[in-house]
Amino acid sequence: MSFLSLRLARRSTTPAGSLIPLRRLTVKLFTRCNPMMQGAKAGNKTAQQFRDAALPWLDDAYAFAQVLMRTDSDAEQAVQDCYLRALRQFDGFRGTAIRPWLLAILKTVCQEKLGKTLGRRGSPTDVAGTKEKSNRCAPPTIRQLVDDLPAPLGEVIALREMIDLSYKEIAEVTGVPVATVMSRIAEARGLLLAARRAAQASAEPAAARPTGGTSKPTVYRADAC
User: Fold this and answer.
1) Residue ranges for the chain with pLDDT beneath 70
2) What's the pLDDT score for residue 198?
3) What is the 3-state secondary structure (H, E, C) of the chain?
4) Which of 46, 83, 128, 210 is deepest in the core (most CB within 10 A)?
């Protein structure tokens, strides 16, 4: 399985015309941030700088929130709360790259929303789990396979392969050492490959499966995914 396909996964999580949810989310952001965002039009330097620096990463924030929150509505709400919090804290931002800082705030927001259920197959994932079970006759998508990973693995593989952060940036977002990031990504890739192969094997037509003791076992090539 080429992990380049993961970078396209976020585009397939919404129907054709996936920019529509993002445009709607942008409108909601400006509505909720109205008092501060209006300051950008009135010459407020901080509000203007935040808008110019943060809005280009709205797509990445939404993609990451979908992985953490599992539903589009919860992801939208988390991104709105994240941008509100980031706007309030922007005066204290002293870094050179706003994207890791923004995504770190988003992760904190999602953790607060999910509480102790983050990373478990509890209430936040019930809806997604139901959809997944009803679709088991079809091969799982990359996003479904990522959603099945434990939370620490799912978030790092999403940040690396979907959002294309560096190992150092992922460490900033997750708050763990770079070495831990690298080991988690390696483990996540291994689990994704195994899950994809297992799904392909179970989806193979019964007629193509070996039935007798003398039949040769089906060999799955490493590059089949």
Assistant:
1) 1-45, 116-139, 204-225
2) 87
3) CCHHHHHHHHHHCCCCCCHHHHHHHHHHHHHHCHHHHHHHHCCCHHHHHHHHHHHHHHHHHHHHHHHHHCCHHHHHHHHHHHHHHHHHHHHHCCCCCHHHHHHHHHHHHHHHHHHHHCCCCCHHHHHHHHHHHHCCCCCCCHHHHHHHCCHHHHHHHHHHHHCCCCHHHHHHHHCCCHHHHHHHHHHHHHHHHHHHHHHHHHHCCHHHCCCCCCCCCCCCCCCCC
4) 83
The pTM assigned to this predicted structure is: 0.69
User: Please, are residues 89 and 36 in contact by the beta-carbon 8 Å criterion?
Assistant: no
Residue at token pair 């983050």? 118
Query: Cα 17 to the chain's mean position, in Å?
Result: 19
Q: In the prediction, which pLDDT does 72 show?
A: 84
